[in-house]
C-alpha cells in the first residue's frame, strides 16, 4: 500500500500507558473487527463502499448527474444538517474545480442554521441561476433543513412551475419511512435511499454524499476505493501499520490524564474536516456523562481552566506545493532561510511556534496526523478510518456509538416549543 498518511507522537511514556490498556483496547478492536458488539447491525457502514461499487449504483448516479447537466442546471442546492453534508463539503472545498468541458455543477450547502439573514443571502445567490435541490435527512425531522427546503422549493416552483420543479428535486432519506420518504412519494420527487441500518453520521459512502459529489464532477469511484483500502488496513493487527487502531490506542491511553481534546489544522482551507471530526466524535462517544470536551478552539480561558489537553494536529500535504525559491534577489539575500522551503513546512513551523507559547501547552502529548496528498482516494481512506476510531472510542467509553440521545432531546424540545 502506498503511504497515505502518518500518525506521529513525541511522548515516550505513552508506550507504558499503552501497555497498561493493551488488553482492553485489543478486546474492543477484535469485537469491532468481528462485529461482536451489541449494536452490530449498525456496523453496516463497513460494507457500504464495496456495495456501492458492485451494485451499479455509480452508473445510476452518473445518469442523474448527466441529466442535470443536459438541462443546463448550474447549481445543486444541498440541504442537510452537519452530519449529512460535512463529508461532501470537505471534499468539495478541497477538490472541486469549475470545468467548462465537464460542465460539473456548483454545490451550495444550506440548512445548518435558522439564520434568516443567511437563508435570504443563499436564496438570492440562486435567484437568477438554474438550480436543482437535493434535501438530505434520515428522518426529515430537523427544523433547519426543513425550513431551508420549504423556501428553496417555493423559489424553484415560482421560477419554473410546480410540475417542472418536481423533476429537479431529489430526496435522500430513509428507504422505508419518514417525513421526506412520504413527501417524495406524494409529489413524485426523485428518491435516493439511505439504508435503514446506516446512521446518518456514518453515511459518507451512501447516496448522502455520492450523489452531490457526482454532480460536482468528483471522482466517486476513487473515493470509495480509498474507503476499501481503509477496511483492509483495519484488518492488520499491528500498532504501527493499522492507523485507526494506532490513533484510537494513543487517544485512549492519554484520556486517563486529560480533560479536553482539541483539534488544530495547519491549512484553514481544510477547516471543514475539523467540524466533521468533532461532530462525529462528540455524537458517537461523548454521551451519558462520558467522553472528553472536544473543540477546535484553543484560547487563554481554556488554558487557565484545563491543565491537561490532548491536541490532534492535522496536516494535509499538497504534492503541488511550490518551493519558495523564486524570491527576488533583494529578498532572497535577506531571507536565505526560506530558500527551498515548502509552504506547508512554513505553516507547520509557524503553528508550532504559536502553540508552544501557550502556558499549559503539552507539546509532548500532541498527536500529529499527516495526510500525504489531497485527493478523493485519501479522503475516502480518512473518513472510513475515523468511522473506526469513533466506533472504538464509543465502545471503550461504554456507550452505544450509534444512538444520539442529545440530538433526540433537541428535536423534542424544538417540537414542544412550536406547539406552545
TrEMBL record:
GO terms for biological process: gluconeogenesis; glucose 6-phosphate metabolic process; glycolytic process. It comes from Mycoplasmopsis columbina SF7. Pfam families: PGI (PF00342). The lineage of its organism: Bacteria, Bacillati, Mycoplasmatota, Mycoplasmoidales, Metamycoplasmataceae. GO terms for cellular component: cytosol. It is an enzyme of class 5 (isomerase). The keyword ATP-binding does not apply. Its EC number is 5.3.1.9. GO terms for molecular function: carbohydrate derivative binding; glucose-6-phosphate isomerase activity; monosaccharide binding. Keywords: Gluconeogenesis, Glycolysis, Isomerase. The gene is pgi. The keyword Isomerase applies. This is Glucose-6-phosphate isomerase.
